Amino acid sequence: MDPVPGLDLSLPPFDLLDDAGRERLQASVDIALHRAGTTLIEAGKPSLHAHVILKGLVHATVRDDNGREQRFADYGPGDVFGAWAVMAGRARLSYRADGDCLTFLIPAEVFRQLIADNPPFAAYFNEGLATKGRLSIGNSDRREVAELMVTQVGEAQLAPAERIDATATIAEASARLHARRVDCLLVDDPAHDAPGIVTRTDLLEALSLERLPLDATVGPLASRPLVAVDTSAVLFQALVQMTERHIERVVVTDRGAIAGTLGMAEVLSHFASHSHLISLRLSRARTLEEIADAAGAMDRLVRSLNAHGARIPYVMELVSALNSRIMGQLFDLLVPEAHRNGICLLVMGSEGRREQVLKTDQDNALVLADDLDWPGLDDAMGRFSAALDKVGYPPCPGKVMVNNPHWRMRASEWHARIDHWRQSYGGQNALDLSIALDARPIAGKLALFAPVKARLMALGEDHILLHHLAAATLDFDTPLTFFGRVRSDADGIDIKKGGIFPVVHGLRCLALRHGIEANGSAERCTALVEQGHLSSDLGRDLPQALNVFQRMRLQSQLAALDEGRKAGNAIDPARLTRLDRELLRDALHVVKEFRGHIRHSFHLRD
Questions:
Q1: Alpha-carbon separation of residue 420 from 217, 428, 588 (angstroms)
Q2: What DSSP character marks residue 373?
Q3: What is the pTM of this model?
Q4: CA of residue 349 relative to chain centroid, distance
């Protein structure tokens, strides 16, 4: 089929389409002339087309809180606009022709189908993933990872869920494994409501390490509760579960019923994941040097996933799972087993929210049992912080670390500290409280954190505290000019201050106010929408905006590392593609809208 005149399908994002997608686009695209002053897309309404400008200039406008129309951005030849309106079902901006203008029209239903059929193309629009480095990756590589991102667990090759009674012997269980050619058995025991699971490795260790006889029963060997994923989950989520739980197989459920089991081998048949190699090396690591060697592959894993078009939420989940394993393994290496039941290790900040991509500064703390008696605690935590530094997690500039006694507290001391935060909520106390609200337990006796979490959540009843805490959401201006263009200085845009922090902190404050215990920003957002405290539009757009910011920051950080510079939070708009600049403007507008919501909700003033 002849190419569409003037529409170069070899350039981003259309080069991400497969041959069938390009043919479909060529067969459906049209060209339209829009007279000066014509409104091409109206804010708040669905769009029938996504547009690519061939000739002319289009202004995007938005109405402020007083209903006045303001210039948001300008679009010229080659720019794509209206993609968000097509995907979301409503436009956030109005688009009007400045003079006579020619645009290519891609029908909405065709555009949505292209996104559904081409995950890399979808990622380009959903998260602004397009970069020269990623686009140089071969199509087969992109498809491999894309399949992992969209293939559901139910579509994978599941092993049958073979069951055995708890009274069966090890010999009988081994024979069943061999006969059925499976790696695990579900163990039914009348003493438990749900089955347990016993693997080939469990039986081998029972015989070789515990010296149990062949006629010993398998009931006591079964692990409970089952770790399960639903058939509707994607394979990447199953990979995260296995990585985080240190296991090689999960049970698969379909509408509550067990449909089979899924092992790492079945997942890796879809994707040769570096993460599995890291997990394997961690499971074998017995020294600090071996843990550091495994952790050293983390940045390469992130680079690989990023280059192959992995969605940013999946990357963050997997990185979080691996980080937790690394930190937990160091904890077990340096804390004697006799003391582990008296200590709970917490991670905080972006790690606590599971929103970290590259390894970052240490943000951690301890909850100690009130009766813990361990004179060697201070020395051990000094060695723990030094070990984290050695494996790639540098010290926190604010000293939010377990080697700082300020962040090592007994349960009763945590309660007193939280009460102090309630009474004195300014300056450093507000910062400390914000950090603590994202805390997540990862090692030691996790139950020690439960009463601390409950005490933190009780702060949501203090409206004066919340008012002052939420005010920080407005501390940094949204980097947009009066005419809606992205505003930056010589160092670019600090996307953490201008984009990420207002969203993360605003959602944190809303979640605390409404008793939502979730740590992750996306989970907090979903819960707020479900409870009616956030509009469905903002509930959909805020996670999308965060993904845009996280992905662009990651691209900038990787580029900085390649150039021998320190990875930071600045992004240079001049290095972005035209479409990425549109995504950035759209995402920053979401932040601006959300700041207005926070201002209204907590009765704040700029």
A1: 54, 12, 35
A2: -
A3: 0.67
A4: 13
